Amino acid sequence: MAQETHAVSSPVVFTAVKSWLVVEGPKANEAVQFYKAAFGAEELSRVNDPKRKAEQELPLIRSAELKIGSSIFVVSDLSDDSPVKSAVSGVFCLETEAVEAAIAQAVGAGAVSDDEVVEGEGACCGGRAGKVKDPYGNVWLICSPANKCGGGVAA
Length: 155
Prior knowledge:
- By secondary structure, the chain is of the alpha+beta class.
- The protein has helices spanning about 30-40, 100-110; strands at about 20-25, 40-50, 60-70, 70-75, 90-95, 110-115, 120, 130-135, 140-145.
- Strands 5, 6, 7, 8 and 9 form a 5-stranded mixed beta sheet that branches.
- Helix 1 packs antiparallel against helix 2 (about 100-110).
- The radius of gyration is 19 Å and the shape is globular.
């Protein structure tokens, strides 16, 4: 099957890539609170699903933008009009000098520590790294910054 090519008059420039976490509804609000407690996430915005207005129903979150460091990601509830048809899990890497403290904070908020902190070739970047799984099935690698473990540019 041949792939069609289309002429582009000017190059497309993307300004960001945002990860999007979809959790089983109605747990996105819970997930937002977890990411705030576990990783110090800052909530930038939230859009609730307008279809759930009954007092007895928790509003589904259509999108909640969160920021950790300089990165922004989105959390939403799985619903009939979600862009995906099932909750998806992902793997994310957080960089910090305080690997053990970050793991302890995440575990204190409800994450499960997967392994001990490893160093060298066993780590994701040759430095130091640990791993936690959040209550929604996502894996968070907590690593020393790349420039500290051989992945960055020498100063």
